[in-house]
């Protein structure tokens, strides 16, 4: 890659943690501006993909696209084609446009494989859209709960009902309280949703977070606190938050197919008694909810029984 691998926020977090010099060497070797064949084949076998975009007001959203395996293809190493349209009620219906920055996370939970691709939306049409690659890289299998997804087209709803509110309702709280997985979308402050204006480190990112059921603490005022465990030191999510605190969360109810989208403002809690109280936490993410959208039975996938990630065995729980 000819442009910087990490932007100022990512570099600042790496510097604080003491890995900046190492990551300056590692980053250009593992973050590519094209998709290797292994990644191209991987995306092609998935029945769903998670996406991160930004709306016209600058709010990031995490979304999910689903269809029969094979709905994603890669005609060349610089392009990913997604032959699916946003689900009913998904914020992606409003944010998907030509030239927009997008972050994609391909996840195969039952094998704990995941690959990331960040790029620019191209060729939006009635069948789907294409993405021009800007960053392509893999992630380790840590913290992923193993559950096998199955495409269930009979569950595809054209007019699912979306429940919107400024604060969480009881149903949303139940989804959060039992969650062992969430997805978080963030954006570099300079992107403005249009990644053509800056280098490859600019744009939108979407990432996975996993923990033991209940790893997301929710207080009465609607603030979420999530432990941040040892990772790959890229700090894509935390680096974005360091310069732009707005984020979007996606929770999936794997039993019902309900989807919960949250607009939040996030801050990083670097140290202190709360961090020390959660075994395995390197730091915490504290997120204040400003808006929610809950869509019932929206995801046309069934799931096998979950198997806790071995990496979570030594981690704690909220007191």
Can you offer a commentary on this structure?
It is a single chain. The chain is an alpha+beta fold and 319 residues long. It has a single domain, classed as Electron Transport, Fmn-binding Protein, Chain A (Pnp Oxidase, Chain A). Helices cover 17% and strands 37% of the residues. The chain contains 7 helices and 17 strands. The strands form 3 sheets. Strands 9, 10, 11, 12, 13, 14, 15 and 16 form an 8-stranded antiparallel β-sheet that branches. A hairpin with a 2-residue loop joins strand 3 and strand 4. Helix 1 packs across helix 6. About 3% of the residues have low confidence.
Work out the count of structural domains. Answer: 1
Based on CA atoms alone, the radius of gyration comes out at 18 Å
Class, according to the CATH hierarchy? Mainly Beta
Mean pLDDT value: 93
Number of helical segments?
Answer: 7
Proportion of strand residues: 35-45%
Regarding quaternary structure, what we see is single chain
**Helical residues, percent:** 10-25%
**How many beta-strand elements?**
17
| Span between termini | 45 Å
- State the shape: globular
Give unreliable regions as ranges: 191-198
Reconstruct the topology from this structure.
Blueprint: H1 8-17, H2 20-30, H3 37-44, E1 48-54, E2 60-66, E3 72-76, E4 79-82, H4 92-95, E5 101-108, E6 113-125, E7 128-139, E8 149-151, E9 162-165, H5 170-178, E10 181-187, E11 204-210, E12 217-218, E13 223-228, H6 236-243, E14 246-252, E15 259-269, H7 273-277, E16 283-295, E17 301-303
Antiparallel strand pairs: 1-2, 1-5, 3-4, 4-7, 5-6, 6-7, 8-17, 9-16, 10-11, 10-14, 12-13, 13-16, 14-15, 15-16
Helix pairs in contact: 1-6
């Amino acid at each position: 890659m000819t442009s910087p691998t990490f932007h100022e926020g990512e570099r600042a977090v790496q510097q604080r943690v003491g890995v900046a010099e190492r990551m300056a060497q590692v980053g250009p070797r593992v973050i590519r501006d094209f998709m290797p064949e292994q990644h191209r084949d991987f995306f092609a076998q998935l029945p769903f993909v998670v996406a991160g975009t930004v709306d016209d007001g600058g709010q990031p959203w995490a979304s999910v696209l689903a269809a029969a395996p094979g709905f994603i293809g890669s005609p060349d190493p610089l392009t990913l084609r997604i032959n699916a349209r946003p689900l009913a009620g998904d914020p992606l219906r409003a944010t998907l446009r030509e030239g927009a920055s997008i972050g994609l996370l391909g996840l195969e939970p039952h094998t704990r494989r995941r690959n990331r691709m960040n790029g620019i939306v191209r060729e939006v049409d009635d069948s789907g859209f294409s993405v021009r690659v800007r960053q392509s890289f893999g992630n380790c299998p840590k913290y992923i709960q193993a559950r096998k997804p199955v495409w269930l087209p009979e569950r595809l709803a054209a007019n699912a009902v979306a429940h919107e509110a400024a604060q969480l309702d009881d149903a949303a709280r139940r989804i959060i309280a039992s969650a062992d997985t969430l997805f978080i979308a963030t954006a570099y402050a300079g992107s403005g949703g249009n990644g053509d204006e800056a280098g490859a480190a600019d744009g939108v990112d979407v990432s996975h977070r996993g923990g033991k059921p209940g790893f997301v603490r929710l207080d009465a005022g609607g603030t979420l606190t999530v432990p941040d465990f040892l990772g790959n030191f890229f700090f894509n999510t935390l680096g974005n938050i360091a310069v732009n605190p707005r984020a979007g969360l996606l929770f999936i109810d794997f039993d019902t197919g309900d989807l919960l989208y949250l607009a939040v403002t996030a801050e990083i809690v670097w140290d202190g008694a709360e961090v020390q109280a959660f075994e395995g936490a390197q730091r915490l993410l504290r997120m204040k909810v400003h808006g929610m959208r809950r869509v019932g039975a929206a995801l046309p996938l069934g799931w096998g029984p979950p198997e806790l990630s071995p990496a979570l065995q030594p981690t704690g729980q909220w007191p």
